[in-house]
Design goal:
With about 100 residues, the protein is mainly α. It has one domain. About 35% of the residues lie in helices and about 0% in strands. It is globular.
Length: about 100
């Protein structure tokens, strides 16, 4: 079974949207949608789905889909991340943080 630990450290297995999506439970997803902040939730309950941060699908809750940590990890996994992300900044001695 693939890991459910997202690059940010969150365990997707603890997410009620993830669990309801995997269980194919539209009533549970609709209830979660009702609780969601109207300013950030998807337009309809049917759009509230998530298969996990590292699932390789485009099915994520809006927060995770827009997450910079997730995006950087996925780019790095695809080999698209800038090379300096693997080492110290050129202007920082001895691997000092950026």
């Amino acid at each position: 079974m693939p890991s459910t630990i997202a690059p940010c450290g969150f365990d997707c297995a603890n997410c009620p949207v993830y669990r309801a999506t995997l269980a194919d439970a539209p009533a549970a997803l609709a209830s979660l949608w009702e609780l969601w902040d109207p300013a950030t939730r998807p337009a309809t309950p049917e759009e509230l789905r998530c298969r996990g941060c590292l699932s390789g699908t485009a099915v994520h809750i809006p927060f995770c889909a827009a997450c910079a940590i997730r995006r950087a990890a996925m780019e790095k996994a695809d080999g698209d991340a800038p090379e300096e992300a693997d080492g110290p900044a050129p202007d920082k001695p001895d691997g000092a943080s950026r």
